[in-house]
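Methods — Computational structure assignment.
A single polypeptide chain was analysed. Its primary sequence is given first, followed by the predicted tertiary structure written as structure tokens.
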Amino acid sequence: MIIAVDFDGTIVTHEYPRIGREIPFAIDTLKRLQEEGHHQLILWTVREGDLLNEAVEFCRTRGLEFYAVNNNYPESEVIENQSRKISAELFIDDRNLGGIPDWGVIYRMIMSGKPWSPVSSEFIPDPAPKKKNWFGR
């Protein structure tokens, strides 16, 4: 599976443009997904230039190498002002509706192929509104 992963707020805490603290288990989980699940990971971030290089190096020094960065193919060059729309089967991003689940939940969800749906985040529509009976008591 091709998985696009955000950096700020997902792998590290949000302190852009600085690199925040590593979010517990983020890098370890991503490495396990590569090794055990044989998934291709793409770093998908708004960072560019030196800030992007710092993020890639941050991950590399911790043993996490991405298949590609802000692109679908490693050999493709990222051109400034080019659309960063990429093709992936799954996007891991802290800006998801409902936020980002714990990295253990992310790992189990991907490896099992079952979606995440905690009770607190489930969308449960309201039942049909009841009409008031204006004439009855």
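Note: The beta strands are 2-5, 40-43, 68-69, 90-92.
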